[in-house]
Design a protein that fits this description.
Length: 398
């Protein structure tokens, strides 16, 4: 098999890129994607908070596959960028003229000792998994008293705001049910700050305090004992690290995350530095620095932006423009500035919108103050963004 453009990954980045290329008249495109179901993952926070049913976040993969694009239902196994080929598990060798790598990232549940087993207990769950997102709501709404613990692993992860958003939603739920005073809420993050952009971090510190959430910085989850209901953290203070075990009544875990193994073990991976193991691309052009027929976007890459759907929405036009230019042996005109956005739900009916780029400064795009908690922003999260995802992004309109 050989294709003009081969895309690895049929998630948000892969589907949107394929649809946008088709709109530009590109033919002979194929997507390698094993999953039968496509998920709108940004809504899993709301699933875990009991706001929307999980079924509303899933559609058959065939339904979102762009017309005129071949769907290869298989898994990529290895890359040969010199020869221009990808090896898959079932179909074998697939050759390409141009390659777009967008398989997302993988959730490394096994990197936290005991977590896989603990997830089978009713007191541990995570909104980072389709099935467990609804189980999260069952877990949280059953809490009557005790310590409810939320964790955040080291960066990078997808949707870096989600670990604390579910904590805010839980605090709001307990307050509405009259149980807040009987519960202790803690947010244990591996990071030294609550959010990477100072202006938003200041607001989130105040919001966490308003909810009575104890924010514990530089707490990296290393093990969970589901039988004794204890979570153990590597805690760093003043340059020294020690372990600390914290009991819980309910535990929401966000797992460590990394590039898929087949990317990490490939010649496309960044060999060293902070991006080691991730798909290496120029952070502005999204082209691989050593293989000029290869491009990458989405969560898998080394670009130092937030790994969000909003970032993909801004990356796709740049990648498409540059890929078309490369097809014509022209200079690459498109430049991605690192835009990312995080809709930070702070309670039922409340949200602020964090927008920022490579400069690390707020870059608001709406004509209102989105740094304030607003009901209109909640409506954006609850209704407008899902509609835009299914009806615009999945059709290549970005």
């Amino acid at each position: 098999m050989r294709y003009r453009v081969l895309i690895i990954g049929g998630g948000t980045a892969g589907i949107t890129t394929a649809a946008a290329l088709r709109r530009k008249g590109v033919e002979d495109i194929a997507i390698v994607e094993p999953s039968e179901t496509h998920y709108y993952q940004p809504a899993w926070t709301l699933v875990g908070a009991g706001v929307v049913p999980r079924e509303s976040t899933a559609r058959p993969q065939a339904q979102v596959m762009p017309k005129g694009v071949a769907w290869i239902r298989d898994r990529a196994k290895s890359f040969d960028p010199v020869a221009g080929a990808v090896e898959t598990e079932a179909k074998g060798r697939i050759e390409y003229d141009f390659l777009v790598v967008a398989p997302g990232l993988q959730l490394d549940w096994g990197r936290v000792e005991g977590l896989v087993d603990a997830l089978e207990t009713p007191q541990v769950s995570s909104i980072y998994d389709y099935r467990r997102a609804s189980e999260t709501w069952e877990m949280l709404r059953g809490v009557e008293s005790g310590h409810v613990l939320f964790t955040c692993p080291p960066m990078p992860i997808k949707c870096a705001g989600a670990p604390q958003k579910i904590a805010y939603m839980m605090a709001d739920h307990l307050s509405r049910g009259g149980r807040r005073a009987r519960c202790e809420l803690s947010y244990a993050t591996a990071l030294p700050v609550i959010f990477g952009v100072k202006e938003y971090a200041e607001k989130l510190v105040a919001i966490a305090a308003r909810h009575g959430i104890d924010v514990r910085y530089q707490h990296n989850l290393v093990s969970v004992d589901g039988a004794t209901r204890e979570a153990t953290f590597a805690v760093t203070r003043d340059g020294e690290t020690h372990t600390e075990s914290i009991p819980y009544e309910a535990l929401h875990v966000v797992p460590p995350q990394s590039a898929p193994d087949f990317v990490q073990q490939s010649p496309l991976a960044c060999p060293d530095g902070t991006g080691k193991g991730w798909m290496e691309v120029d952070q502005h052009t999204l082209q691989h620095p050593r293989y000029d027929r290869v491009f990458g976007l989405g969560d898998v890459t080394t670009t130092p932006n937030a790994k969000t759907g909003a970032a993909v929405r801004h990356q796709v036009p740049v990648l498409v423009e540059n890929l078309l230019a490369r097809m014509r042996d022209r200079a690459l005109p498109g430049s991605y500035g690192g835009y990312g956005a995080c809709p930070l739900v702070t309670g039922r009916g409340k949200m602020l919108l964090a927008e920022f780029d490579y400069t690390g400064k707020p870059t608001p795009t709406l004509p209102i103050d989105t740094m304030r908690e607003r009901y209109s922003m909640w409506l954006l999260k609850r209704y407008a963004l899902p509609w835009a995802y299914w009806n615009l992004m999945m059709r290549g309109i970005v």
